Amino acid sequence: MLRGRSLSVTSLGGLPRWEAGLPVENLLLFEVSWEVTNKVGGIYTVIQTKAKTTADEWGDNYFLIGPYFEHNMKTQVEQCEPVNDAVRRAMDTMNKHGCQFVTDHADGRHVIVQFHEWQAGIGLILSRARKLPIATVFTTHATLLGRYLCAANIDFYNHLDKFNIDKEAGERQIYHRYCMERASVHCAHVFTTVSEITAIEAEHMLKRKPDVVTPNGLNVKKFSAVHEFQNLHAMYKARIQEFVRGHFYGHLDFDLEKTLFLFIAGRYEFSNKGADIFLESLSRLNFLLRMHKSDVTVVVFFIMPAKTNNFNVETLKGQAVRKQLWDTAHSVKEKFGKKLYDALLRGEIPDMNNILDRDDMTIMKRAIFSTQRQSLPPVTTHNMIDDSTDPILSTIRRIGLFNSRTDRVKLILHPEFLSSTSPLLPMDYEEFVRGCHLGVFPSYYEPWGYTPAECTVMGIPSVTTNLSGFGCFMQEHVADPTAYGIYIVDRRFCSPDDSCNQLTQFLYGFCKQSRRQRIIQRNRTERLSDLLDWRYLGRYYQHARHLTLSRAFPEKFHMEPTSPPTTEGFKYPRPPSVPPSPSGSQASSPQSSDAEGDDEDERYDEEEEAERDRLNIKSPFSLSHVPRGKKKQHGEYKN
After folding, report:
1. What global pTM score does this model have?
2. Is 392 within 8 Å of 307 (Cβ atoms)?
3. What is each CA distance from 569 to 65, 178, 358, 542, in whole angstroms?
4. Which of 29, 196, 287, 436 has the fewest CB atoms within 10 Å, measured from its CB?
């Protein structure tokens, strides 16, 4: 469904430039959300990662308001007294009514308040009803009804204009929340959302076209050593390999150096997060790899929390067997090394037939016997409470991927969030992502998509869709996303079967890449991280604040009308070298992961490509004031 663009589309080159920033010393900025220092979902990440950039711009005039939870207050913030008298009086009054505050901010003349999601919307509605002199922004990160409808496996995007909104909300017993959300949207001076795909949804579900699209960013950490992220990939991949050795003990007949680690992670929303299409694609990928007699093995992790009653015994046993074998090997190695050392000191070449005695042979035979296993490696690491009805396990039974020896695709469901204290896979999420080769997120409903964004800033390729905000953003800013390690599945204009086939081809093409091609692709993926840095994406929030001030206080802040901006002049070009994709740089059959073409060295100049990409990143807004006598720019505010 086609639509006109919002005033600010997700184009870094499309926004008007203000060489004079807002007079932040005379303003107050509040952000209100249920997820301020309270991790529930992605909004927490948005606010937490954006806070530093916003504080750098606004200083002590920036406030965050959220729920007071004692355990969060102790670990995430520091308590102090407000500096400004007006703020102190207001807070003292509210403290008498049972409210708690943690603040260290100052005061100003005009107030901007941004409300995130319907939980905070009641404050916006009451503020407008009582005619408080504040400029308001309401941001929806996903519509309530949209999430519910997509979870019910409804053909959502093809029927956006056909839903009876009130009836659907009432049937799902969320009418009261839906009314609060819709009222907040229509009361706000400026309405924003996080992606173009969610803007389309909001226009139909909430009956207002968003004024500004504000893409979500991250705090991007750049390493001083250019290839440090590659070194981290190798280090954490080795730790995942150790887990795999234990999990597949007795069935470890595949080469770990030719094994690729794929993963999907997030809330356990089987259809919304695309786990259904991913499993079906893995079944087809397994068929292709077996048919072509590929020596590549794919181990796929599902990191999606579900109800469990602890680890299963077989998984724990696997890690115990691995550790025991490691200890045995080191014990024999110590004895072997000592005998070899003594023989060399005597000037003798040791008899290799006698260097290991009968006890050593017995120990090794016992170790080998301990790895014998009658059952297949488990497809889940925990005992699932609803094993018989669990969607992922039910689909695994249907497609028949049980980690048998003949399968080239192996599955592991880890129904808990990762933790460095886990006895099974002692890794934090970031460490795990860095050790994997590909993140797969073929979501049907994904207003933004932090998981593929996090992969990108860590230099890990990912699969996303054109129904996710992240996928649409990358399509707009990267001429050939696949060459940069961003595979975008069409789930909007294709049938489910065609989308599944496209995903299968993406996965199969990735399996056919050589090790060098994967390294090149990771370098390109990591270079896209600048696109996702709040230093650049923060300008959309700046734009929304300018706009709400001009609407709330037109006599003080004026904004000249602007036409819908274009994306011209800001797009990563297709790399001049042949991209590492099946169509452009690979043979029709799988090849060894160590295979490298001699002519690739001539085609690929990493420094040249990197410099060309850097030139495509425009500098962030200047916050300095316009010098006297300089002509004001189009779209600039005047006090």
Report:
1. 0.83
2. no
3. 38, 40, 74, 21
4. 287
